[in-house]
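Input.
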Amino acid sequence: MSQKGRRYPLKSKEAKVIIKRASQRLKFDIEIIIGQRRNIEIVEAEWTRIYLVDGKPLLFEDKGVLLPTLLFFEALEKL
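Output.
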């Protein structure tokens, strides 16, 4: 049976940490793409965390590794 995921906004300080981790992992500054003023939320599911940026699922975390979703076209083009 599936459980409903938990969804909540990140604080500004937490969002900066996630942006920094993702930028290091992807080897480019994703803040240039998403901008400085953004609303970042987390959806916690059983097997992963999905990061929503202004309502769009752009990143997910699997076993501590941040990766772009297939909807994050700008990041995928740079890989």
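The chain is about 30% helix and 30% strand.
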